Amino acid sequence: MRRTFLLEPNLRNFGGHPFEFSIALLDAAQALRINAILVCHQEANEEWLGCKRNIIRLISAGSFENIDNRGETFCADLRRLRELVHLSHEDVVIVLTAHLNEIAGIRRFMSEATDHRPPRFFLVVHQLYPPEPDFKAASSEKRRGFWLKRLEGELAKLGKDVTLCSTPSRALRSKLQSYFAGEVIEIPLPFPDASREHTFFARDERPDEREANAVFLGDGRFEKGLSILLDAVPLDIRGVAFTIQSSPLRGYSKRHAQKIRRLLALLAEERRIALLGSNLSRDQFQAALLRADFVILPYHPLSYDARVSGILVQSLLVGKPAIVSADTWLAEEVMKYDAGVKFAYFVRSHERCVQALRDAVVQMVHNHSRYKAGAQRAAQIYSKVHNATAFLDAVFRS
Q1: Spatial CB neighbours of 224, under 8 Å, sequence gap ≥ 6
Q2: Which residues, other chains included, contact 190 with Cβ-Cβ below 8 Å and sequence gap of 6+?
Q3: Tens digit of pLDDT for each residue in 60-118?
Q4: Which of 65, 79, 82, 334 is deepest in the core (most CB within 10 A)?
Q5: Sheet strand arrangement including 322-325
Q6: All domains in the chain, ordered by first residue
C-alpha cells in the first residue's frame, strides 16, 4: 500500500502555519483514505502531538537553519527515515517547506540510491530568499542575487524525477521554472477544510456606527511592516481602533527594535489599542480575525513580490477586506476581487510609507461596504481552492 510522508522541517512549536497545515493535511488524508505519516522536527512537543497518530519526530534542523551545510543534515535525516520505515519507490514524500537545504539534501539522497529506486519526492517552495538577521542588508541587490544564484545552482542539479510545487504566486512559479528542468506545479495553501465553516457575517454592523476594528496579525519580522503600522497609529485616524499582535522582533537593528518596544509600551496605554501576545492558539488567532472589520498587511515588496501571504488567504477565507502594500502578491489578489486597498510602499522613505498607510486606512473606512463585498466574493472562491483536500488533489493529479 502506498504511503504518503508529509515532512515539515519547521514543525517544532504549537501554532503557526507549519502546525496548522500539517495537521490539516493529516485530517484530510484520513478522510480521503490516504495512508499519511507526518514527519516533524525531533524537538516537537509530545503533548500536543500526542492527540494525533502517524507522527514521527525525526528532522534535526529547520528549513533555514545551518543553511551553508549544503543539505548534509537533511540527507542524513532522510537516511534515518529510510532505515526507520523502509522507504520504497511506491511511497510519496512531500516536503512541505523546502529551500536550499532540502533541495540539496534530496539530491544527495537520490544519488545514493544505486541499489534501489527512491520514493517520489514533491518539494513545496514558498519563497526565493531565506530569512536573515538584518533584513535591510539581506534585501540589497547583491545579497538577493547571491541567494538566487545559490537556488539556481541547486535546482539545476536536481533530477527531473522530483516535482517542485509552487504556491499560487505566478512570479515564484515562473522563477522556479526558469531554474528547474523538471515539472513545477502550482498548489493551493492547505488550510483546514473547516475554515469554510467560519462565517464571514460574524460582524454585521457598519463601521461608521462604531469604531472600526483594524487588525494586524503575524510575527515580528521586519518585512511584515509592524514599524510602519505603529508609526501610523498615532496619526489622527478617527473612528478606528487597532488590534495588534506583538511578537518577538526579527530582522531589525538593535536600536530600531528598542524604539519599537518603547512605542508598543506607550500604545498599550491607549484606549483604542489592543495588544495581543505572540503565542496565539489557532482558536485565539481565528477569533481575533473574525472580530476584525479589516486587516492591515504592510509587507515589504522586496520580500513579498513573489511570496504568498497565508494571513491574507486566511483573511479572505472569512470575508475580511485588507490593506496591503503595492507591488506584492497580496496587492494582486486584493485588486483581483476589489477586496481592499493597496498603498504605495516607498522603500527609501519610512515617513512616506507611514503617510500612505494612514491614507489607505481612511479610504478603507470610507468605502468599507464596497471592499467587504469584494472580500466576501473572494471567500466564496477561496473556500473551494485553499484547503487541505485541494492541496492533496493537486499533488496526486500531477
Answers
A1: 218, 297, 298, 299, 300
A2: 21, 24, 25, 28, 386, 387, 388, 390, 391, 392
A3: 999 999 888 889 999 999 999 999 999 999 999 999 999 999 999 999 999 987 667 89
A4: 334
A5: 273-276, 240-245, 212-216, 294-297, 322-325, 340-343
A6: 4-187 (3.40.50.2000), 194-383 (3.40.50.2000)
Residues 6+ apart with CB under 8 A from 196: 317, 383, 387
Cell of 339: 477586496
What residue type is 41 in one-letter code? Answer: H
Is the distance from CB of 362 to CB of 355 less than 8 angstroms?
no
HEC secondary structure over 289-340: HHCCCEEEECCCHHHHCCCCCHHHHHHHHCCCCEEEECCCHHHHHHHHHCCE
- Whether the CB-CB separation of 144 and 129 falls below 8 Å is answered with yes
38's grid cell? 507526518
pTM above 0.85, yes or no: yes
Total number of residues shown for the chain = 398
Q: Which of 397, 382, 287, 391 is nearest to 31 (CA)?
A: 391
